[in-house]
Amino acid sequence: MNKKITLGLALSLVMIASAVTFILTSFFTLQSFNEKVVDVNEKSKKYNSLNSVDAYVREHYYGDIDDQDLNYGTLKGLIEGLGDPYSKYLTPDEFEAARSDEEGSQTGLGLTLTEDSSGYIRITDILPDSPAVEEGLSNDDIIVRIDDKDVHTIGFADAMNEMQGNEGSSVKLTIRRNGIDTDYTFKRRSIDIQSVTGKMTNDYIGYIQVAGFRKNTPDQFLDQLGSLTANGAKSLIIDLRGNEGGLITALEECADPLLPEGAIATAEYKDGHTETIVYSDDNKLDLPLIVLVDKNTASTAELFAASLRDFCQAQIVGVKTRGNGTIQETEKMDDGGAIILTVAECKTAVSESYNGTGIVPDVIVENPENADNDPQFDAAVELAMTSR
Fold this sequence. Notes:
Helix content is 37%, strand content 27%. It is α+β, with helices and mostly antiparallel strands. The longest helix has 54 residues, at 7-60. The model has no long low-confidence stretch (mean pLDDT 88).
């Protein structure tokens, strides 16, 4: 039997439905407004605190204030407040230096420097094919003056700033060797960083050391890999000790010829979605692999080691790695600086994350400090001899 609804009842039902809709909409709108008000109030408190600190510092600080340095320090402090050692703010100069390093080059003279006990600057390493090599500088030479400014007088930090300059610019250094001071004039230029070296340890074991994963690392790695296999390498030692990581794209290109086809590594982002970040094709070099790691093996280098162990049965030798299984993205800011921010956690496609825990080697071998021998390398060679 059909039931009929009167016009009055229908209008009443429509009015009730409209009222309920209005009430619910108003409730959620008010809730959203209250949340925004709380957020605005919290932000206002933060900015008021910052303004109060700024006003106090400007009124009472005894020394001179450089507003640019103060601003950079504030931005650095904001990111440091996250408590994440891998997130940071870079000043424009720091960002430019980081980009050059990522490219696998640096602008300068090709020197690695440290503060000497005398208060001057000691040369600890020199890049090949650099202006410093061409002029005959050596490790342990002492830099006493930069453009006629005494290093001891201006201090190490300011002296290091004086060493910086654009490609093509000139700098005058006074070098002290065996108590004799000699003046040199250099022209700064771009220098390729050699991040991969290799050699045959004997007739059938190849050795490749990878210092970092930069844009030019894959070409260097593939050159060494091709050379070693052409020279009869039947097993391979890959040394990642001291390698603090770098570009995942560089890792992928280096690892591809060693890995089977498929998804190798993934990343999980804040919203919970997962992406494949390392994929390998079906071309695989079938060689026994030994990987050397230490406490300074980190980030991309850890993922490289874990991938070789999980997909190539590589044996890892050394001590537990740092445990940085995260991914950072770099965002350039309007001031020319940049924010490096941790955005995801990564792992291989088959293992649990090593973030915060590190990778425990299959064969744990400690290297004594300041020792002339290398027990970790010796252990890797012994494993390679038995696995070929």
